[in-house]
Amino acid sequence: MVRSARRYAEKFCWRNQAAKHLQLAEAVLEGSAPSQHMFDEDETMNEPA
Asked: For the whole prediction, is pTM greater than 0.90?
């Protein structure tokens, strides 16, 4: 019983993580990911003055 519960928890965790990664990938492709703004700032900081 403990083994099957552990297996279920691992599968649930894996699926949950996979779903989060898919959501982040979609957000990056749409340009609406929070980290996208960080990259934009980094690019402007590296431009010559």
From this structure: no
